[in-house]
Amino acid sequence: MFDADPVAIRRSLSRMLASPPLSGLAAEARGVAELVLAESLNNVAEHAYDEGGGSIEVTLRQDPDGILCQIVDSGRSMPNGRLPEGQLPTNTNAQLQDLPEGGFGWHLIRSLCADLSYTRSEGKNLLMYLIPG
């Protein structure tokens, strides 16, 4: 368990990558894991806690198909109680400030993971996915 702030997230992610099961992945799979975990954890800090602080619990477990990841927080629930679609913007001429929130990161997570699921129970968010490896 660690605080949902950028410094704590970077520190914790570094520790996760240096320890099993992530340390046993090939370099490319470890890079994918780092990218997906960083995006997921930063989403919790930025959106679930609204950068107001809270804690995050991450459980990683080896699976025959990769690494099972479970992220639990007590922040705000996902909009409408479901995962964002993660659609990329169709207007390629849009200015940076006009791009929609929630597209790129969720598109990335959905593209790189399998078995993505989200539930909310007893005031806690539970995000689970498989990082192929």
Plain-language structure description:
The chain is of the alpha+beta class. The chain has a single domain, classed as Histidine kinase-like ATPase, C-terminal domain (Heat Shock Protein 90, 2-Layer Sandwich). The protein is 33% helix and 27% strand. It has a five-stranded antiparallel beta sheet, with helices on one face. Strand 2 and strand 3 form a beta hairpin. Helix 2 (27-48) packs antiparallel against helix 3.
Strand order of the largest sheet: 1-2-3-5-4
Structural class: alpha+beta
State the low-pLDDT regions, or none.
none
Biggest sheet layout = 5 strands, antiparallel
Summed over residues and divided by their number, the pLDDT gives a mean of 90
Number of spatially distinct domains = 1
Number of helices: 3
- How far apart, in Å, are the first and last alpha carbons? 24 Å
Q: What is the CATH superfamily classification?
A: Histidine kinase-like ATPase, C-terminal domain
Q: How much strand?
A: 25-35%
Helix content: 25-40%
Shape: globular
Reported CATH architecture: 2-Layer Sandwich
Q: Would you summarize the structure shown here?
A:
The protein has helices at 6-18, 27-48, 104-112; strands spanning 2-3, 55-63, 66-73, 114-121, 124-132. Strand 2 (55-63) and strand 3 (66-73) form a beta hairpin.
Write a concise keyword list for the protein shown above.
Heat Shock Protein 90; 3 helices; 133 residues; five-stranded antiparallel β-sheet; 5 strands; globular
